[in-house]
Design a protein that fits this description.
The structure is a single chain. Helices cover 57% and strands 9% of the residues. Helix 18 packs antiparallel against helix 19. Among the domains are: 124 residues, PH-domain like; 164 residues, no CATH class; 92 residues, no CATH class. The strands form two sheets. The chain has a seven-stranded antiparallel beta sheet with strand order 4-3-2-1-7-6-5, covered by helices on one side. The protein contains 30 helices and eleven strands. With 708 residues, the chain is an alpha+beta fold.
Length: 708
């Protein structure tokens, strides 16, 4: 009856009634011939030395305190305890003890303890949280590895272990053993040190990282991580970091602290990415503190560099200098690109301060200079840097572009330099042109343009763009449709570049901006597009596909202003194209919209006419009512000569009364006698009547001619 491979820690109660660790090893139940009884034996897992031998006496009181702890007492030992690595091992040993004592394994105590013994057992603490690191010796490495890798599931024990590692300089002692093992070729111990160092890293504590990643320790930590037991041969990571990974200062760095931080960050990032990928047994955030450690290192590097304004000023000056070699320019651009990557770790307000500082020191003129160079690598790196600036503050770039127009030629504007790079991209896949088009679209996006009480960036920059840059953008289209006789090679080159401009125009239309739509229609920008399509004929190529897709998008999105403009101006030219249904679809949409508008106008006319008849009837009723009121007053004054009375209505007689409407604010006029014996009456009956009379049709005067 033997139970092997049950890992335990053995504790005993000292004279001060405190629990101390006796050791750790593997427990088994062994029959001892000399005593004719079974005993519990704990032997070292490393060298099989005996740590504990305790007879299982029939009357010994054993108590199962927790799922992983068994305690008892003996004559010579007032308190012993076995703390198991897992509960299954504890249960297996408990069943052996109960069987030997003839007890039910479901109970938690094998005997009825005496009163004093019961008090003793109740006073025994839970030893499962106790942590006692063995001495840092070669013979104890296995115990150390077991202990470090066993505390991850217990936050309390984990914290206690971290405290011990911090205070006792334990990590440096382990790394000293690493040198000894590597010199002697002790492979087994090197594998154990790998497990120990990796386990310490996964404790995920910044205080331990500061020790392990210090200048004196970090390469030894990398050395320990080279001896992965799963690899047939150790990897030479230290050799790579020392001999291959060279630190090159494109501009001398005067701050020694900054240099040290850059070295440390690179090496820690290497450890994080290459040496300790998170295994599946750990959670995804098993190294979250390590990634945070790297993050704050980058923030500190950016901050220290930002404080040295002379450093960046010298970089920008060298980039703008014509004497700077291509190799030096590549080094400067690569450094600045990595700096921009690091800057993404800053908080928004700190990032704003950074880019304002860089702009003040000459970032944008330097970028403009290198983006116009012939070297593909330099232009690509410059585009990546430019994308960081555009993402942060497109308004800052718009402002720079408009300001530089005051003192340089239009062709040399930053925006036009970018557009020329799009048009002249030699990449068959148009990778660089596509990236630049995305950035141009961002700069032209009205949604991210500022509007303040004192300025409207949207109108200012768009007007500026169409005045100074649009002709550069559509130049390939004009060249293709200019009517000049081109050589075949020239036509192929133009047809390759035209889709870039078309893609840009398609992006503008995709924004659904009324401002852009207005400029496109007013500038008649569809004419060169349609001319290019007609000149291309029935050839199925990139130019044809780009143009057809542009009009198909307008049809699918039913952009009405474009549909009307295209059909009314270019229908005769487009009706012959029948290999796609796009243009027929545009014509159908145009007719449907036209019919819809006609019906709306008819309904409106019907409603307006009905309203006018109703208003005319009301006005006539008011005129008639007032007329007869005046007639009654005239009956009371029959003795008066109607022809001599000013400002009153005439007596009812066989005369003609003609009513004409006047403006609301017009003063009432006097009655005027007409030679024919009739009177002309200019109404000023009431303001309300006059207001309603405004809506009468032009022939209302004829309808209200009444002869009495």
């Amino acid at each position: 009856m033997a139970l092997w491979r049950r890992r335990v820690k053995v504790y005993y109660m000292n004279d001060d009634q405190q629990w101390d660790i006796l050791g750790s090893g593997l427990v088994s139940s062994v029959y001892v011939e000399q005593t004719q009884a079974y005993s519990l034996q704990v032997r070292s897992e490393y060298n099989s030395s005996l740590i504990l031998e305790s007879l299982i006496h029939p009357h010994t009181v054993y108590q199962k305190k927790t799922e992983s702890l068994i305690v008892w007492s003996e004559t010579e030992n007032p308190g012993l305890a076995l703390s198991f690595h897992d509960s299954s091992g504890c249960q297996a040993v408990w069943e052996i003890i109960c069987r030997l004592q003839g007890k039910d394994p479901s109970i938690d105590i094998t005997q009825d303890p005496l009163n004093e013994s019961e008090e003793l057992y109740n006073g025994i603490p839970d030893t499962s949280n106790l942590v006692d690191l063995p001495n840092c010796e070669l013979s104890k490495l296995e115990q150390i590895a077991d202990l470090i890798n066993s505390v991850h599931s217990s936050p309390v024990r984990k914290e206690k272990l971290v405290f011990i590692l911090e205070k006792e300089d334990y990590i440096r002692k382990l790394l000293s053993l690493f040198h000894t093992c590597e010199l002697t070729g002790n492979t087994k111990s090197l594998h154990l040190l790998y497990e120990i160092i990796r386990g310490i890293l996964f404790l995920n504590k910044t205080t331990l990282f500061e020790i392990m990643f210090s200048d004196e320790c970090i390469l030894d930590v990398v050395g320990c991580l080279e001896y992965d037991p799963t690899l047939a041969q150790p990897k030479r990571h230290r050799e790579f970091l020392i001999q291959n990974a060279k630190f090159k200062e494109v501009i001398p760095i005067r701050d020694s602290e900054l240099k040290q931080k850059i070295h440390q960050t690179y090496r820690v990032q290497y450890i994080y990415d290459i040496l300790i990928p998170v295994p599946s047994v750990f959670s995804d955030n098993g190294l979250s503190t390590l990634s945070t450690f790297i993050f704050f290192n980058k923030v500190e590097i950016v901050t220290l560099l930002q404080e040295d304004e002379e450093f960046f000023f010298e970089i920008f000056e060298q980039l703008k200098a014509k004497t700077t070699t291509k190799e030096k320019c590549i080094e400067l651009m690569s450094f600045f690109k990595e700096f921009c990557v690091f800057s993404q770790t800053l908080q928004p307000q700190n990032k704003e301060i950074l880019f304002q500082t860089l702009t003040h020191l000459g970032l944008l003129p330097a970028l403009k200079m290198v983006m116009g160079m012939d070297d593909v690598l330099i232009r690509s790196t410059a585009t990546d840097i430019f994308s960081y600036v555009v993402e942060y503050s497109p308004s800052m770039i718009r402002r720079f572009i408009m300001e530089e127009a005051e003192h340089i030629e239009v062709d040399n504007l930053f925006m036009n330099v970018i557009i020329k790079q799009v048009i002249c991209d030699t990449d068959p896949e148009l990778g660089g042109a596509t990236n630049l088009m995305v950035l141009i679209r961002c700069l032209l996006d009205p949604e991210n343009m500022l509007t303040t009480p004192t300025e409207c960036e949207r109108s200012e920059f768009l007007n500026f763009f169409y005045q100074h840059c649009m002709h550069i953008l559509i130049e390939p289209l004009w060249a293709t449709t200019s009517g000049k006789n081109c050589e075949k090679g020239d036509t192929v080159e133009l047809n390759k570049n035209c889709p870039n401009a078309l893609r840009f125009m398609r992006s503008m239309i995709g924004l659904h901006s009324e401002d852009y739509n207005y400029y496109i229609i007013e500038g008649n920008l569809f004419e060169p597009v349609i001319n290019a399509l007609l000149r291309n004929g029935t050839r199925y190529n990139m130019l044809n596909s780009a143009i057809v897709e542009l009009f198909e998008y307008i049809r699918v999105e039913n952009i009405k202003s474009f549909v009307v403009h295209i059909i009314e101006r270019f229908h005769q030219s487009l009706e012959t194209i029948d290999y796609v249904q796009t243009f027929k679809g545009l014509k159908i949409q145009y007719e449907e919209e036209k019919n819809s508008q006609s019906k709306i106008y008819e309904n409106l006319n019907s409603v307006v006419y009905s309203n006018m008849l109703s208003k005319n009837s009301e006005i006539f009723g008011e005129v008639q009512e007032i007329y007869f009121l005046q007639d009654t007053e005239n009956d009371d004054e029959a003795s008066m000569d109607p022809f001599d009375v000013e400002g009153q209505f005439p007596h009812v007689c066989d005369n003609t009364v003609e009513i004409e409407t006047t403006e609301v604010n017009e003063e009432p006029t006097e009655l005027q006698r007409k030679p024919s014996g009739s009177f002309e009456f200019h109404t000023s009956i009431s303001e309300d009547v006059a207001n309603k009379a405004k809506y009468l049709p032009e022939n209302v005067e004829e309808k209200f001619v009444t002869r009495i």
